[in-house]
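Hey L., structure's done. Input below.
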Amino acid sequence: MNSLEIRNFSLVFRMYDTGIRKTDLQVITDLNLSLRPGEIHAVVGSSGSGKSLLAHAILGILPRNASCGGEMLWFGQSLTPALQKKLRGNQLALVPQSVNYLDPLMRVGKQVSRNRKTAIETLRRYELDNRVAKMYPFELSGGMARRVMLATAAATKAKVVIADEPTPGLSAVLAEAAMTRFRSLADSGSSILLITHDLELAVRYADRISVFYAGTTLETAKASDFEDIELLRHPYSRALWQAIPQNGFRPIPGTQPYAGSLPKGCVFADRCDKCTEMCSVRPSPRHIRDGEVSCHHAN
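Output:
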């Protein structure tokens, strides 16, 4: 059974437009994702593709003007607001993107774990000594604060850990160490949702990778498929991989469409060299070669 299943998920923000008139801004549409126990599932894509918003939706920490559609299932059970509140910080943990999530009025050790011994042992894994446990967040450097947030997730026995851009600000050695810890958590049975811009890092450590674009899922593939571009099913997945400097740094023309002006058909159509008339209709997800893709031309 999947630990977390997200089906046809949508997210709309009710916003003021002109004066007192309100309008709906749809930022996520028909997004699909599944997490399995014992795996790292990476989510990649450009800024504005919906990665962090999905994380906040799973945790139930969206602002009040947000409205969600579709299904979210926790081990087959509907992930209701009441269940989210019960799981959050316990069986469902977050490593947030911003270090500002640390409580400025609480010592670091207590934020990692109420058990002092557990807190100190966990901090040591991230090369933070006993003195750090007695510090307040304002006394930490940026890299230290990020390691503390990693430690808070490692100290839990969470079934699902959402890591939102966990490695920026860390040295290459510490970033690799952090990913090794996530790998260890997954190997012990947890599900790790890794949100990252670092596609190369995702390929090295993840089991599966989902590619987001303009608030939807274009492809989900085994991480190993990225080692051979011909195994990828969607043109954007191939373009994303080829845009990495070590893979040729070949960006494609155009930009991701804004959430308020998405096309009715395929969201990638205006940048795709395979675009035809059928792309005026939004493609539904299809299972192809042990992966899933939303593209009329995938084979």
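The mean pLDDT is 92. The CA atoms of residues 179 and 205 lie 7 Å apart.

-- N.
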